[in-house]
Amino acid sequence: MALERLEAAPVLATLEELRARIGARFPTRGLYGVSGDLLILAGEVVTSSEINRNRISIVRVLSRVLIVAVTAATVVLLVLAFRSAVQDGPEHGVEWLSLLESGVNDVVFAAIAIWFLYTVPERLRRAESLTLLHELRSLAHIVDMHQLNKDPERLRATFTPTAVSPTLGLTFEELEHYLDYCSELLSMIGKTAALCAEESRDAVVLDTVSTIETLTTSLSRKIWQKITVLNEVRRSAGA
């Protein structure tokens, strides 16, 4: 059974639905704006993948043509150098060693040039992917900042605020939905990052995607701990 790809369309559709759900409950809160930023960024990931696919194909063809040209030029130069050495070569062995060293250097430099040209397409793809992944990682931390001061303990009847305590302004039900939306946004950030890996097998890109997924999972775990505490507080309050 063939493994299925992570398709962009369902990810975008889920993000649009999540944004609509957040807007229905919290249209004036910053979390609604963050969901819009994530939707835009996911669109950029999809568009970038399509553009890169065409651009990389062109760059790959050009790099292969240049590789053939470099290889052919190196072979021609070596053949000419060998012919010249045979016809008008030096008489002493030390001078032959100098010619051999020069030929080896030419081969080494040609190999470096070929490797550089061969890896150009993947390096271009990597640079674009890492830029988008950096933005996704930043967005994950922004989501975490939005839920950071949403402490369920502040809904306890025994909670005594200080002069600098932030205003929660949420009921038990609203806070649960808010935290749940934060968790879903973090999950969708991980899925959007995974879209970057669908078009790449680059080890650096895959490692960055894995790091972002680990980050979002860790942040989401903290949110669910808050939801657990919230339910305990609600039961104790009889709400």
If you had to describe this structure to a student in words, what would you say it looks like?
The protein is mainly alpha-helical. It has helices spanning 8-25, 30-88, 93-148, 172-198, 203-237. The chain has one domain. It has five helices and no strands. Helix 1 runs antiparallel to helix 2, helix 2 runs antiparallel to helix 3 (93-148) and helix 3 (93-148) runs parallel beside helix 5. It is elongated and about 100 Å long. The two termini are 49 Å apart. The model has no long low-confidence stretch (mean pLDDT 82). Keywords: Membrane, Transmembrane, Transmembrane helix. The chain crosses the membrane at residues 61-82, 102-120.
Give a short synopsis of this structure.
This protein has 239 residues and is mainly alpha-helical. Helix content is 82%, strand content 0%.
Question: Which features characterize this protein?
Answer:
239 residues; mainly alpha; 82% helix
